[in-house]
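--- STAGE predict ---
source: upstream dedup step, 1 unique chain passed
mode: sequence only
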Amino acid sequence: MSFQKNNKKVIGAWTMYDWANSVYPLVITSAIFPIFYEKSTTEVVTFFGYQFVNTEIYSYIVSLSYVILVFLSPLLSGIADYSGSKKSFMRFFCYLGALASISLFFFEANNLELSMISVLLGSIGFSGSLVFYNAYLPEIATVDLHDKVSAKGFSRGYIGSSSLLIICLILLKVFNMDARYVFVLTGIWWFGFSQITFRGIPSNIYNHKPEGNRLTKGFNELKKVWKQMSGNKSLKRYLASFFVYSMGVQTIMLMAVFFGTKEIAWGEGEMESGLIISILVIQFIAVAGAYLMAYLSRKIGNIKTLGIVVFIWALICVVAYAFVYTPLHFYIIAAVIGFVMGGIQALSRSTYSKLLPETEDHASYFSFYDVLEKLGIVIGTFFFGFIEGMFSIRESVLMLIVFFIIGFLLLLRIPKTEALSAKK
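--- STAGE serialize ---
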């Protein structure tokens, strides 16, 4: 293979995709659209003739998007590895997500069935592109740099998405722009900055020359990877832990704003600005969290660092359920969430990449990582919405504690490996 790892320009181009696509989970999933959705819909909505709590049906649509990806991404990843077309698949999902974001301009609460298609496709586009994006990490950087490069990517994403959010807030508050134009701007930002990535990252690193039926070959590639994974105890046990604790992490990231809208005693006119401030606090503190956890992993190892972070997530749920009722409480818990969010996202990705064997099938390996994350989100968001429908959103938060406790215990079962050990 002629491609040389640790090229600064390639790594810089790769991390720019975090800058490009992170605006979707911040602006669309976390900040502007949830508030727009709450204002546009009533507490109880009708969806295909059935009545649901508005946030309940939203969580179900998000869950559906991940169910689709669970079936789709492994097969596409096998094809991408066989044919060397990882970059093309990444570009397709990127453009799908960007266009879906733009299409939210036409969101209508009175036509919820059609409007939710944009939410569905945006989620598929964002998460689908990440499978192929993440798979580049072990191909462009050596193992000793995985934590640092992963942290750099997430940090650049937090800064980039926060920058756009601030621009959006100025447009909304100072110029009284309709929120619908923010969704268009988000899609354009995502599409535009992704071009830096697509120009800079390599295509077909291993010079694969596909022959025959790509679907069949892709499926065979996937079976080969599955067989290799089955014999890797460290990888299997790490994925088991990741699957469980990511249920809690991803569900909180997706549904935290709705907790803020329903459970916090905001003053008159304070809610919208308060939620945005909380989100910005999370984003900027997450930058420090990502780098600090990368540093800590070098000192005490990846698994011990992850254990500390997962334990803090469990404490966050306990505190949120029992004590978070006022805006001040919400700001404090947001700061703590930001600190551990940056750490767990960057470190989870780099830990997985360190455990991979020598292989050319990185997209297939990361598709399993992605599938488990998405299955976790499906389970987490479904039960979050289900419990809210039966009790309240506060009880839904209480349920998440179970995921973190089990995930923490599973981390303890991972055998020690040189790749995950502290650097002396």
